[in-house]
# Entry
Amino acid sequence: SSELTQDPAVSVALGQTVRITCQGDSLRSYYASWYQQKPGQAPVLVIYGKNNRPSGIPDRFSGSSSGNTASLTITGAQAEDEADYYCNSRDSSGNHPVFGGGTKLTVL
Amino acid sequence: EVQLVESGGGLIQPGGSLRLSCAASGFNVSSNYMSWVRQAPGKGLEWVSVIYSGGSTNYADSVKGRFTISRDNSKNTLHLQMNSLRAEDTAVYYCAREDPSGFGEFDYWGQGTLVTVSS
# Structure
């Protein structure tokens, strides 16, 4: 089992706001990063650090963190946001990276 | 432009060996932390191994003692030597760069290469 826990599936109505969460003890010490993965494609970094977006990522994607929980928020979800989302941080000892189990986002 | 291109995947019998390669362009592999991340069919992402800029390495417990990560600085290429392969090693293998000025995130990924371990 992963040291980072995500809900397996979340749904959101088109144009509404959705929050995807990631829980783990290591998140009290390390930032989470978030990746979007569409079927048959490699993951794409969407949020990193405190709340940073790589070039080309729409500003409807944002990140936050509190205690042992990191969150990815999509404000005004679009059809093209339907994908799997993975959080990533360090393991509890800080020795190596670890991924959450992933959340499948459905845009209704 | 940064690009990562994996190769070397294929069908291999249990107990066999395979060597994956990841050709990098647009940056120096030797100056960065480079990882292999895998994804079993229908499953999530699993970190496999990292080689740091100083040359030290680390492995997930699931592959320790069987897999070896290395790099060829002259060819700007990352490798993963996989020995004693098992059915559970079946996955798409991605190479990924850790952002050198970030917080441990993987900012660039290859397109992946599929490894199938089956008799």
